[in-house]
From TrEMBL:
Matches recorded under PROSITE patterns: HCY
Hcy-binding domain residues: 1-306
Pathway named in the protein's UniProt entry: Amino-acid biosynthesis; L-methionine biosynthesis via de novo pathway
Protein name, as recorded: Hcy-binding domain-containing protein
UniProt record, GO biological process: methionine biosynthetic process; methylation; S-methylmethionine cycle
Pfam families, per database record: S-methyl_trans
Residues annotated for Zn(2+) binding in this entry: C232, C291, C292
Organism: Zophobas morio
Length: 315
């Protein structure tokens, strides 16, 4: 069990960008830095998003660094390498500020506090073309390029003081292995490893076999990886993927199930994510939250469902 979390099931937060839209002057959808731009432009909005999720009752909040990268900050904010590195550290301090505020406002009390997970999105996220959902860049991107992309952000997040890392929306085994190997240089940090997957029930977004991929990545570093799983997928597509994986702690944070069309926008056909929760928990999911289009209200419903399930499944 993760140090600092005493519950059987650990609850994560929801979408950062979706919640952020409530507080920023202009939506960041379509921005090449996406929600990461707000670290520089609207830090107060970032704190408010964290606070909303703390109020909703989650055990872990994630830094706003999914699409944050030093090359991205150099290109789109005219930052130096050093300033880019500092902005990633600032993302951690904004999460810490939110926790301090939650304590002052009486939302949390005593020694308890949500943990801070440093979000480590895939290389494809900074390409800003949706390629984390097909992993098309995987074969033409060298291991060295992937290492150079991931290592500085991981280093900045750890230096900033995160409690653990959220390695997420990774489309391929190749990229996952690179990151899992990088964290061996920081043996004190724990991490979860979550993939973007196809809806065929067997493959990662890039087409690797999901079960083989999560099993072999977990075995590569069982001391540091606390859970493996899937995120940013429609709720109905989760069960076939995870039911084949046994004896490894699982993490699931699905999206709302809505589909996006560049001409028509979101189709508003969301699935009731909370209704899937008992099934997932019965399959060994230990970490549960939400991804795109899942907001603080949805997390409150997830908290309710999880506590109900825990009450009837005492060890
Ligand atoms: Zn997502």
């Amino acid at each position: 069990m993760l140090k600092g979390v005493n519950k059987k099931i650990t609850i994560l937060d929801g979408s950062f960008g979706f919640q952020l839209d409530k507080y920023v002057s202009k939506s960041l959808d379509g921005d090449p830095l996406w929600s990461a731009r707000s670290l520089a432009s609207e830090p107060e909005a970032v704190i408010k998003v964290h606070l909303d999720y703390i109020k909703a009752g989650c055990d872990i909040i994630e830094t706003n660094t999914y699409q944050a990268s030093i090359p991205g900050f150099i290109k789109y904010l005219n930052y130096t390498k050093e300033e880019g590195y500092e902005l990633i550290k600032k993302a951690v301090s904004l999460a810490k500020t939110a926790i301090e505020r939650a304590r002052k406002e009486g939302i949390i009390s005593g020694d308890t506090r949500p943990l801070i997970a440093g979000s480590v999105g895939p290389y494809g996220a900074h390409l800003h073309d949706g390629s984390e959902y097909n992993g098309y860049y995987t074969d033409k991107t060298t291991i060295e390029v992937l290492q150079n992309y991931h290592k500085p952000r991981i280093s900045a997040l750890i230096e900033g003081g995160v409690d653990l890392l959220a390695i997420e929306t990774i489309p391929s085994k190749k990229e996952a292995e690179v990151i899992v190997n990088i964290i061996k240089d920081y043996p004190d940090i724990k991490a979860w490893l979550s993939f973007s997957c196809r809806t065929d029930g067997v493959s990662t977004a890039h087409g690797d076999n999901f079960k083989d991929t999560v099993t072999s990545c977990y075995k590569l570093n069982p001391d540091q990886i606390i859970a493996v799983g899937v995120n940013c997928i429609a709720p109905h597509a989760v069960e076939p993927l995870i039911k084949e994986v046994t004896d490894i702690p699982l993490i699931v944070y699905a999206n709302s199930g809505e589909k996006y069309d560049s001409a028509l926008g979101w189709d508003n056909n969301d699935e009731k994510l909370e209704e899937y929760i008992p099934t997932w928990l019965n399959l060994g999911v230990k970490y549960i939250g939400g991804c795109c289009r899942v907001c603080d209200n949805n997390i409150s419903k997830i908290v309710e469902e999880v506590r109900k399930w825990e009450a009837t499944h005492s060890e």
